[in-house]
Specification:
- This protein is 56% helix and 12% strand.
- By secondary structure, the protein is α+β, with helices and mostly antiparallel strands.
- The protein has 3 domains: 42 residues, Pemi-like Protein 1, Chain: D, CATH 2.10.260; 71 residues, 2-Layer Sandwich (Translation Initiation Factor IF3); 195 residues, Methane Monooxygenase Hydroxylase, Chain G, domain 1 (Up-down Bundle), CATH 1.20.58.220.
């Protein structure tokens, strides 16, 4: 789901006997989730430029007024970004920023960075005292199970990168990209849930046929976000370059493959509920949680100065979040009512 930087020049191609065509940049088409046969609408500006966007889905509102943020000025760093992210997460498609005083270059850059960190958002108008951002995401094309699977892939990449950093005792080259990708998917997940709560027909289209499941999805998103924070914090700490004892690292390395395995299994049983598999996932994540906690307590005092202790505790807490996912999977499997578990009498 990364954006990329496409070539701004496109060659005009002949299409049929009397028509011409221009190809769309692949990163933009992928971010808009466009497929062959989809429709695009465009507007022509006075200067001759064209403004393209995916055609709205029938039945969805497309003419809502922009969410307006108006202030005398923006002086505190981070406020603009948080306002934009918040408006995106609660479902606004257009976000307009107005100020009495012109935005300073630092705030303009902050605003542009915020747009780049949100999937489907572009700046469509920029003036000294006014900026308009537009979201072009079609919510019906981003299913909750698919986004959760995407989040799983990012979290597995975090674990892979932690192992790589431990192996080479250097800094992580992929940490900023992983954090950005995780935040993009999490923000879109929250947005999808908010929109689905307002439109139950949308909820069914994106993978929540029973509206009550939206509460479960909220728990899932929160847990995945917590794991993302824990793994990114661990990777940041281990990338600090502080010398570490090999025997302390061995404790952490021992649990990382198991965490990767439990992460994959917990998400898999969540999107494809099976009572037997969900019970096994719950048992294994609980075991990993307890084992990591015991290992953290057995580490020597020096491990607290090198980040190994914090990393092991973060691994334990991550296992606790995965255990919560497996609990949701058990609930879903039980609700389906198509399996029975026989427990032998003591």
């Amino acid at each position: 789901m990364a954006w990329g930087t496409p070539n701004r020049e496109r060659r005009v191609l002949k299409a049929g006997h009397s028509s011409i065509a221009v190809t769309l940049p692949k990163p933009w088409a992928e971010a808009m989730n466009l497929r062959p046969g989809d429709s695009i609408v465009f507007d022509q500006n006075d200067d001759g430029t064209l403004f393209l966007k995916p055609a709205p889905v029938p039945g969805l509102s497309s003419g809502a007024a922009p969410y307006l943020v108006q202030a005398h000025s923006f002086d505190t760093p981070g406020i603009l970004e948080r306002l934009i992210v918040g408006a995106y997460r609660v479902g606004h498609d257009a976000i307009e920023i107005r100020t009495d005083l012109p935005l300073v270059p630092e705030r303009v850059e902050e605003l542009l960075q915020a747009a780049r960190k949100l999937l489907g958002v572009s700046v469509v108008a920029q003036e000294p005292n006014r900026v308009l951002l537009q979201n072009f995401i079609d919510p019906s094309k981003y299913g909750l199970p698919q986004l959760v699977q995407r989040m799983k892939m990012i979290l597995v990449a975090f674990v892979d990168e932690i192992e790589a950093v431990l192996g080479r005792h250097g800094r992580s080259r992929h940490l900023p990209t992983l954090i950005e990708e995780a935040n993009k998917v999490l923000a879109l997940l929250v947005r999808q849930l908010v929109l689905a709560c307002r439109d139950w027909s949308l909820a069914r289209r994106i993978g929540s046929p029973d509206p009550r499941q939206l509460l479960e999805w909220r728990v899932v998103v929160h847990s995945l976000g917590e794991v993302s924070e824990l793994l990114s914090s661990t990777l940041t700490t281990l990338s600090g370059g502080r010398p570490r004892a090999s025997e302390d690292e061995a404790v952490l390395k021992e649990f990382l493959p198991e965490l990767r395995l439990r992460l994959k299994a917990s998400v898999e049983v969540l999107v494809r509920p099976s009572l037997e598999a969900a019970c096994e996932a719950f048992s294994e994540t609980a075991r990993l949680h307890d084992a990591a906690g015991t290992a953290a307590q057995s580490l020597p005092a020096r491990a607290r100065k090198t980040g190994i202790y914090e990393a092991t505790v973060a691994l334990q807490r991550s296992a606790g979040c995965l255990s919560l996912l497996s609990e949701v999977a058990i609930d879903r499997a039980v609700a389906a009512g198509n399996e029975t578990v026989l427990v032998a009498a003591a």
